[in-house]
Amino acid sequence: MSWAATPALAGAAYYLLALVAALGWRRRESAPRLLPPLSLLKPMHGTDTRLYEAIRSHANQDYPEFEILCGFSDANDPGLADVERLKQEFPDRALRVILAKPDAPNVKAAVLAELAKQARYGLLVVSDDDILAGPGYLRAVVAPFENARTGLVTCLYRAHARTLASRVEALGVATEFAPSVMVARSLGVVDFALGSTMALRAETLRQIGGFEAIADFLADDYQLGRQVVARGYRVEFASAVVETGPGDLSWAAMWRHQLRWSRTIRVSRPAGYYGSVVTQATFWALAAFLAGEWAWGTVALAARLAAGLMVGGIILKDRSVWRWFWLMPLRDLFGFAVWVGGCFGSTVYWRGRKLRLHADGHIIEET
Question: Is the pTM of this model over 0.90?
């Protein structure tokens, strides 16, 4: 076995582990016995062609009693028009607009802190403004709380795409990121949440110091999960899968988006980030092919494609994965370039702001 075959073998082993994790992942749809009233917190920023459809999917939930709190940091935010339209369509829905004055680097977390203060109910569900959810979403999110040890509930997501750049990112979400989540859980890494959904009891939030405790970090989802687990609770995944993204990213915007994720992961989990080089199965398969190790390169590439199709196409039910799966190798090579870029630098762009990441995950805004 040559030097080129060894990393290809490691990449194949990783994606075989992802397949095993995926086979054990399937979440059963369970009807919760209790449906407590809840507050749905929506930090809002800007608008796009799918924003109204996304927030409408939450107003139209099959759930007996809940309120929606839409938080803005700018009184002139164009998303306000979409919320006002929603009020007119659902006049009986408890829906409030709250204008916050954030004084923390993470504006989203600062807005959430204000929303949590004004929430009426003891169960809080945080969902990004671009999340599109099915009608049973809230019931699925509530179900794991019947176990008293559950402190936070999150869920997997797939991405919407209209441009080629968005399709490349969506493929990465469905076929690389989601499998990595499943592998992490199977290996006992259970102290993180995903920003697509973060649900927790108001009392649990108070125990960790509120959203104010994570308002200096960019990775608010990771920090929230970590804080909850540190208090002795569990992070659980709901059976629901939601959809995210406006889907019209340019290549430049997608690169910045991906680079922000990579650098944020690097400062949050540096050992895991640098160690993930062995998971770059397509890159190592190409290296094996160039070295004449066709058998090991083929094994690595086949395992990677199989895991991507299993997770993205079957578990996430992302139908576009079946159509565009042939782009996975090209997407992976782009992803490897992003990984290399994420190893260096500390500048990220988020919501029109230029931020600098510190080694401990804190952020400061650059002028």
Answer: yes
